[in-house]
Write a structure and sequence with these properties.
By secondary structure, the chain is α/β, with parallel strands linked by helices. 59% of the residues lie in helices and 10% in strands.
Length: 575
């Protein structure tokens, strides 16, 4: 039985061989596939060796990320809690494995004394139970870490889940303001939502010292929150409490929970950290509830829900005109609607107000950046997008704006990373995975295209089961089905989508792009013509840069359609 199993893509063998040698020099036995003798059954032997190894090292590169074999081996090792991944070339990790701590080895130059390689050695020793107690104590003293699992909704109404999710997210945000504490990002923590999990396995998989879990029950104007802090190594309870409060006390309650966790970890809040935790976007509990409800309906970025999102957030800002997050949400919803309809209100007033009220709010800069992208003002958009990502590297809206900007400027590799991050942050979003398909195709990455198509289809099917008359989701699934060669099923989904949502121009545009890829140019242009004529300026701007339409770009009919749209929207762009 080998100590370590190394999973990698064959094309990366020259890079992997020195790493194997360095690991062997540390005293571990290493198995990797050059040890397969002629005549041995390849799949069976690899499966046996992976199952017997004490730990698995997966070498992520752009090539191995696209390999279904490497992905499968990584998932099996992760399920066993024995995965220690490394990365080269800033490879975009698979969504379901991104939460596991990965050692970046770019530039290690086969130097076994360099810090990244020593970090990998420490990670392996921890997995194998070989780390010295003193070293572990030093690590714990240097940085405590926590994963806040999504709180369970115990309300009688399952529709109240938006509230329990909001509580979980705000606790993650609050704890993230404590400099002595590492907090797992929301998008990583929420990968465990709805799953039956063992807390120690979560701690081991994420490499954290503690896990917080809890539940929320909301009834009328009362809320009950239970929470318990678990030691990731022992599974023992460090702290637990139950809170029964009036809903108007929700902000004080969140502060109390966050400060109790900090105290249980024997940390001391700095004055500025305590002040940051207690600083809320609003002190109005009803406005906060309306905002959380709007955020739930904004998930998935569907045009038909934009008016509802605006109405809810407008109610929030009527109660508290200084609520910057609600203003930013209004701007985002109006921008989306204007991109795919004849609405002329793009949300500029609300975006500017959000930035003015809170210059440190990522959502505000993301909304402004996306507006600039949608207007084709890419140079102006870039600093807004960069600011949003700097303020909150995990914000879904920030990655959506960054991905759109990268596609518009044809930086497809960058776009893939942003769309994957957006998909991880927003489980109700199928469009981000759909955009990743197009980017992989632009790069000529067949394996990546198929992987993104499978991800898009799986997500669309899951969401359609919850919302069966959603034509937009059906339209997104069509593109995935075409990539996967399921043409007949794609045709049936297209017909169903047009019956359910004939007036949704976002859906019609996506369908047009998908149909063009099948070679049925006439039908694709029929759909696109309506989308350009009735839809908003955003459809025209995307049609100018969308690689899915490159096959028809030189056709006289396409050029005539674009000229007509240019005449309608071009003067507006100049203004």
């Amino acid at each position: 039985m080998a100590d370590l199993f190394v999973s990698y893509a064959r094309a990366d063998r020259p890079r992997v061989a020195p790493l194997v040698a360095a690991l062997e020099a540390e005293g571990w036995s290493v198995w990797w596939d050059p040890q397969i003798a002629p005549g041995q059954e390849f799949d069976r032997l690899i499966g046996e060796e992976l199952g017997k190894a004490r730990a698995a090292i997966v070498v992520w590169t752009p090539t191995s990320v696209a390999s279904r074999w490497v992905r499968g081996e990584a998932r099996e090792a992760a399920d066993r809690g024995v995965l220690a991944p490394v990365r080269f070339e800033s490879a975009n990790l698979p969504l379901d494995l991104r939460a596991i701590h990965t050692t970046d080895l770019d530039g290690w130059g086969e130097d076994v004394a360099c810090a990244p390689f020593r970090d990998l050695v420490r990670a392996i020793k921890t997995l194998l139970g070989e780390a010295a107690p003193g070293a572990l104590a030093q690590t714990a003293a240097r940085k405590l870490s926590i994963c806040v699992l999504p709180f369970t909704n115990l309300s009688d109404d399952p529709q109240q889940e938006y509230f329990s999710d909001g509580i979980s997210e705000d606790i993650i945000t609050d704890l993230g303001k404590v400099s002595a504490l590492f907090v797992v990002a929301r998008n990583n923590a929420f990968t465990f939502k709805g799953k039956s999990i063992e807390v120690q396995q979560v701690a081991r998989q994420l490499g954290v010292s503690h896990v917080l879990e809890g539940s929320v029950r909301k009834a009328g104007n009362r809320v009950r929150i239970t929470a318990q802090l678990i030691d990731g190594a022992t599974g023992g309870q460090v702290w637990a409490e139950r809170f029964d409060r009036d809903l108007n006390d929700i902000f004080a309650l969140q502060d109390e929970i966050s400060e109790a966790i900090v105290a249980a970890l024997k940390l001391k809040l700095l004055p500025e950290e305590k002040q940051a935790i207690e600083r809320r976007g609003t002190d109005n509990a009803e406005a906060y509830n309306l905002y959380l409800m709007a955020r739930r309906f904004s998930a998935g970025a569907q045009v038909k829900r934009c008016d509802l999102v605006v109405r809810l957030c407008q109610g929030a800002v009527n109660l508290d005109p200084s609520y910057a997050r609600a203003w930013a949400q209004i701007a985002a919803a109006k921008a989306l609607k204007a991109s795919y309809s004849d609405s002329t209100d793009r949300g500029w007033v609300e975006a500017e107000r959000a930035v003015a009220l809170d210059p440190d709010l990522a959502e505000a800069h993301a909304a402004k950046g996306r507006l600039l992208v949608d207007e084709g003002r890419y140079e102006e958009a870039a600093p807004e997008v960069e600011t949003a990502l700097r303020l909150d590297p995990n914000a879904s809206d920030a990655h959506a704006a960054a991905g759109a900007l990268a596609v518009a400027t044809r930086r497809y590799k960058d776009a893939i990373g942003h769309f994957e991050a957006q998909a991880a942050a927003d489980e109700a979003h199928a469009g981000s995975a759909l955009m990743a398909i197009m980017c992989h195709q632009a790069l000529g990455d067949e394996a990546g295209t198929l992987a993104a198509a499978r991800e898009t289809l799986a997500r669309a099917e899951k969401l359609i089961a919850q919302d069966p008359d959603n034509g937009v989701l059906l339209g997104m699934g069509v593109s995935a089905l075409i990539c996967l060669g399921e043409t007949e099923r794609a045709k049936a989904w297209t017909e169903q989508a047009l019956l359910l949502d004939p007036d949704d121009q976002q859906m019609r545009y996506n369908l047009a792009c998908s149909i063009v890829k099948t070679g049925d140019f006439d039908y694709g242009l029929d759909l696109l013509e309506v989308s350009l004529r009735i839809g908003g300026r955003g459809n025209w701007l995307w049609a100018k840069v969308d690689i899915d339409l490159d096959q028809v770009r030189e056709l006289p009919r396409f050029q005539a359609m674009m000229a007509e749209a240019e005449a309608r929207f071009g003067g507006e762009a100049a203004a």
